[in-house]
Amino acid sequence: MRQEPDLSAGLSAALLPASFQEWFSARGWTPRPHQLDLLARTRQGRSVLLIAPTGAGKTLAGFLPALTDLADRPKRKTGQAQRGIHTLYISPLKALAVDIERNLSRPIEEMALDLRIETRTGDTPSHKRQRQKLVPPDILLTTPEQLALLIASPDAERFFADLRYVVLDELHSLVTSKRGHLLALGLARLRRLAPGTIGIGLSATV
Fold this sequence. Notes:
By secondary structure, this protein is α/β, with parallel strands linked by helices.
């Protein structure tokens, strides 16, 4: 993503719900320009690639579109069918997915966001995987191999029907391997299941 001029405080207020602004302020932080820029672009329906060094708030930037969208989403009414997953995060490392879950859980709890985030890797117990298919979390953190299994499932259409964002982390390490080919096929299938999905690529290097 090319460098853009700093977004004004007014635009920050327009993009971020009050709970997010208060969360940043309580920590003495202000949203970084690239975080707001990414959020603004995805609000326009555009897929993006963010290249930023470690420690630049890249992960939070990648999840801000999903978190703010989920914060404003109406609650599911009693008796309504279960929603499919809203956001899919794909990492080449299952340990990274676990770390991301731990790191995201804190702001989710502190802002009292009504959403569920879970991991699905080769280490996930079978009973939990089955439960995730029946009652999908809002955000699922997984790997290319697990995505391949999910899209091959008979209930894949229902599971991905509400998919809004796909966050691809450590993208530089995925695109140069056979796992990258597997991921490309998976993403092509996701486009058929959820045509309006927005992609967010994250990388620390080109």
